[in-house]
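Subject: design request, 167 residues
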């Protein structure tokens, strides 16, 4: 398998095959919709915006009232920025290639994390016994997607913390 993230000098390059571009765009769009139009008791919203103050509902409500709009705006901006990165990319050898600038690697890392958390919340990953998951189980696909996105995160983290330069 070819790495999704590679170091190019001081830059980090994102390179995706067409199905991966489609997957990332779809997942980012779905998360944006879930955040903009949350359903009652949506597990995604609960997972991405956990209580700020445990054991004190009044204090938690106060903190949420102060921060909720800014936190939501930051997450939505991150999703939009990743979608713009995909638009900015160029085609090379059957892949979409994007050279990430400045803070973009951290932005991508955060969005990948949010998408994985959202998928996990929807399928109740914490209650799932992965060892008993059959290939034809409807949950096998979202688990595989989470694992794939996790592999991307591992690659990006290795570059960001310098492990990619170690022999």
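Subject: RE: design request

Done. Sequence follows.
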């Amino acid at each position: 398998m070819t790495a999704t993230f590679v170091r190019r000098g001081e830059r980090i390059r994102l390179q995706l095959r067409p199905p991966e571009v489609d997957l990332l765009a779809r997942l980012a769009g779905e998360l944006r919709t879930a955040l903009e139009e949350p359903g009652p008791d949506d597990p995604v919203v609960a997972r991405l915006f956990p209580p700020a103050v445990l054991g004190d509902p009044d204090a938690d409500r106060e903190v949420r009232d102060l921060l909720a709009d800014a936190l939501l705006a930051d997450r939505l901006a991150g999703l939009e920025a990743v979608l713009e990165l995909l638009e900015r990319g160029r085609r090379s050898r059957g892949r979409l290639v994007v050279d990430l600038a400045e803070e973009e690697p951290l932005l991508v890392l955060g969005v990948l994390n949010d998408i994985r958390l959202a998928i996990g919340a929807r399928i109740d990953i914490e209650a799932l016994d992965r060892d008993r998951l059959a290939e034809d189980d409807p949950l096998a696909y979202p688990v595989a997607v989470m694992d794939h996105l996790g592999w991307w995160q591992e690659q990006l983290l290795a570059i960001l913390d310098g492990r990619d330069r170690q022999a």
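Strands lie at 5-8, 11-16, 90-92, 95-100.
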